[in-house]
Amino acid sequence: MTGSERSSADLDYRRRKVLYRSWHRGMREVDLILGAFADGEIASLSDDELAIYEAFMAESDADIFKWVMGEQPVPVHHDTPIFAKILSYRHAPVA
Questions:
Q1: Packed helices 81-88 and 47-57: angle between N→C axes, nearest 10 degrees
Q2: CA-to-CA distance for 36 and 31, rounded, in angstroms?
Q3: What pLDDT, on the 0 to 100 scale, is given for residue 90?
């Protein structure tokens, strides 16, 4: 089960790849947070926003989880409007 209910049929290759990677990271808690964010936002992200998100996803799951849960401060270079949007999906219900 991926948790995703969003079809990737209307997305370009780059966005399909990012959507898949958002749901298949390795740490289920991070899958749920980033997957929900990607489901809701991937189609509307600009190329620049997508690049910011891809750079964020390059970080380890353990670090991302600590930043999202507020256990550690997010590094300045990741404290972006994209990170703020990710935070809004922290408690989003997942199907």
A1: 70
A2: 8
A3: 82
